[in-house]
Each structure stands twice: as structure tokens, then as C-alpha cells.
Amino acid sequence: MDDVLRREFEERTLNTRLEAANRGYSCLIVFSLAPRRIGDLMYLIGHQPMMPGHPRRFNFRGRGYSALILPIKEEPCLITSTPFYEDDLFVSDIIYDDNVMEAIGRAMTRYGLDKSDIGIVGMDILAVQLYWDLIGELPQARFHGADDLVMNLRAAKRPYEIEMLRKGAFIADEVSDLLRDYLRPGLTEKEVYNFITSELTKRDVTNAFATCQSGYRSETAYDLIPASDKVIEDGDMIHMEINGKYRGYMIDVCRSTVVGTASERQIEVLETALEMFDKSVAAMKPGVISEDLEKITGEIAIAKGFTANHTKSYGGPATYLGHAIGLGTDEPPVVAKYDLTPLVPGMVITIEPGLYKTGVGGCRIEDEILVTPDGYENLNHSDHAWWRK
Q1: Mean of the pLDDT values across residues 211-221?
Q2: Strand, coil or helix: what is 355?
Q3: Looking at the chain, which runs of residues are DSSP E strands?
Q4: Which among 98, 43, 32 has a CA at the least distance from the CA of 67?
Q5: What gap in Å lies between CA 119 and CA 132, rounded to an integer?
């Protein structure tokens, strides 16, 4: 592990210990679960659990989980449910055990923390039966839910993280520009999907993923089938996601247009979505409340007559305006009504206004936006208005 990354992990764990101590905990147990909830352990020690499966069967307890024991005073210990893990981790004490809860109990007793106040990060992913097993292993401990602790620290990205996200955004821009030139009537959605993922993979992006929804399929924000055998026809509205990971950090960008000749109504839909994007991004700065950004886009949509086409809070079929990203795809804050999180410098948030079920197709425009001390910086620079000739 290089010195820069080692210092990064040292500061992250120090800040985590400080917050745990402020809450009165003697120790944290931080759980991650493959493959969907890996961000907390990636953030703290560079570890991603593997091999999800039966969480509790005979002596196999916690398959797919890893747990970091992080005492306030002493060196941490990683407990993993498989012998397969990274060679270069920011932890030297690593225990592989088929029964994760038993291993936690032994380690906590060894630390002398089996009767202490323990914060659990990952209560939301810990199976109820496994939690009962944990209580059985440590009957005199006092457990406290602390799911927000690490996630809150992750919300404001550190300089190293911003650098990784910036590089990922640059790659997304490169692929976006190539995609604009590639699109034409006669391609299938799967061909577009394969083009995006191939170009991402060429640029060292892992877990490359894309969506392509055209014509009638574009009317919905998301489909369980990310790309189909449908042939893209002249006049089809289309929206496409460009996703993946660059050195563990997410890429999440979307572009929309009409392939071939666009109608006046389609242009109106696209221009409205772009106005929603531009005005909500322009309002971003420290102290702005997350829900207020969706209010901007919702009011624009309704004023233009799209009263049932935007987000759920404004009568439409989409979920919300956006979300933060980092080591996870969908991190807090959520840019939606009822999320009262103030923006702070270092947050990286996707703004992705869309309009759907319009009768002429649906669209979505998405970039990754960094909140700065004075306002914002769009990490993406590729053009949005592909429909303008």
C-alpha cells in the first residue's frame, strides 16, 4: 500500500474513532455485506467482502459478511467469512471464520470489551438471527445502533476521493462523446449497452454497467431489463446510463436525446429537462437544503405542464432528483422532498432530472456535481444537448 493511501486510511479511522468516542462507545463493529453494502469497509480499510450466500446455516453464520472490530484505543481486527480477501489491507489482524459471530465474541473478549458499550454500524444489513447470535456471544455488552456514523463521515469527500471521482467523471465524458457519435437508427439497445461497457472497460473501469431505453421503453425511468433487443428507430427518444467504478469510486452519468429526427414536442421535453438540470445545479452551494433542489425542478416541470412526469413528490413516476455518490452508487443525502440535509463542501451529488410518460418518450440528464466552499463544480464537461443540430 502506498504512503498516500496509508495516510488516507489512518485519517479515516482516526476520525471514525473520534466520532465513536464522542458518542460514548468503547468500540465499533462495522459490518459490510457482499455485494451490495461494501462501502463502509472499503472506506475504512480497503476491504470488500465476498461470496454471499446462506447467512445462517448450521455452523456457517454470516456467509458474505465481514466485520471490522474498531476499538477506540487498540488496533483493529477484521473478521471475514471467506479466506479470499485483498493482499493489501489497512489492517494486519485478519481472522477467517465460518462463524462470524463466534469469532467476534472471541475477539471482543480478548480485547476486554465484552461488557462495554459497542456501536454497531450495519444494523440495517445484519440479519435478525445473526444479531441474536451476537447478543448470545456477548450477553453483557450494551449494543447501540450507529448506522449513520461512518456514512456521515463518508458524505464529505476527502481530497483523495475527489481525485478518484474526478478521474471517473473524465472517463464518463470520453465515453459520452464517443457514444454521441456512435448512436444511429438501426442499432439495438444491446449494441449500445455493449458499446458503453466496452469503452468503459478499455479505460480501466470495473463493474462497467449501462442502460439503454429507447422509444416506448424510454417512457419509464428504469426498467428491470437495462437493454433489450429492441431496434432503435428514427425519431426514438432515448436515455442511457454510463456506470461503473474507477478504483472503487462510482461513475454515474446519463445522457438523453432523440435518434434521428425529433418532433417539436420531443424537443420541448428535452429542453425542459435541461432547464431543470441547469437551474437546480446553479442553486447548489453550502447550506442549501437537499430537498430545495428538487423543489426547483418540480416547480419547473409543473409550470411547463408536466404535472405527472417528474418525481414522485411532484406527481410523477421517478423516485427523486438525485443522490450522493462515492464508494456506493446511492449514498446520502438524497436530493428529494423530506431530506433536510444541508449541503457541505466535499459532497459529490448526482443531479438527474427526468421527464417520463410524456407520450413521445422519456429523458434524463445526469452529471456528478461537487459542492465547493463557494458553490459547486460540475465534474463532467461533455455536452448535454445532443438534440441541438
Answers
A1: 98
A2: strand
A3: 27-33, 56-57, 60-61, 65-71, 77-80, 93-96, 117-121, 142-145, 206-214, 236-246, 249-259, 322-324, 331-335, 348-351, 354-355, 363-364, 367-371, 376-378
A4: 32
A5: 16
Q: How many CB atoms lie within 10 A of CB 80?
A: 25
CA distance 364 to 342: 25
Confidence bin at 1 (pLDDT 50/70/90): confident
- SS3 state of residue 71: strand
The closest of 97, 150, 64, 90 to 105, measured between CA atoms, is 97
Q: How far is CA 375 from CA 111, 118, 288, 295, 336, in A?
A: 46, 38, 10, 18, 19
* HSE, side-chain direction, 13 A CA sphere, residue 358: 30
Q: List pLDDT tens digits, range 33-49.
A: 998 889 999 999 999 99
φ/ψ (deg, to 5) at 270: -65, -45
Terminal-to-terminal C-alpha distance of the chain? 49
Residue that the C-alpha cell 439503454 belongs to:
212
Within 8 A by CB and 6+ apart from 45, the residues are: 9, 13, 68, 76, 78, 89, 90, 91
The cell for 63 is 456467509
